[in-house]
Amino acid sequence: MYDPYDHAETLGIEVVHRRIRTANGLWFPEHNMIVIREGMKAVWDRSTLAHEIAHAALGHCDDRPKHEVMADRYAAENLIDVSELHEVRRWAPDSARLAHELGVTTRLLRVWLNVHQIAS
Fold first, then answer.
1. Cβ–Cβ contacts within 10 Å for residue 7, how many?
2. What is the residue extent of each domain of the chain?
3. pTM over 0.90
4. Could you name the CATH architecture of 4-115?
5. How many angstroms separate the CA atoms of 56 and 117, rounded?
6. How far apart are CA 2 and CA 56, in angstroms?
7. pLDDT, tens only, 64-120
């Protein structure tokens, strides 16, 4: 199972939790640091960190819309295990429950399903 905290550590990225108002997470390439909004539920924390790691791994230095889409795709691919998704889809009644069981946001689930052209 993908752990974004382990991934950040492997990449040498410092992860800190702070009060921020403008976003759930921010990537600061000049400091090799990701700031995550403190107090979020675990699923949001994990999904946000995976998204911000994507910006780092993909070499993004700004938040233009194209980069946001790319970061969501990268995060979804890392966070969602295809075999687990197929197993849970057998009994999960809707995408909200499926996302909950997979430990991702519904947004990242929709991104993954869209990329793989699977109806939700």
1. 17
2. 4-115
3. yes
4. 2-Layer Sandwich (3.30)
5. 26
6. 16
7. 999 999 999 999 999 999 999 999 999 988 999 999 999 999 999 999 999 998 766
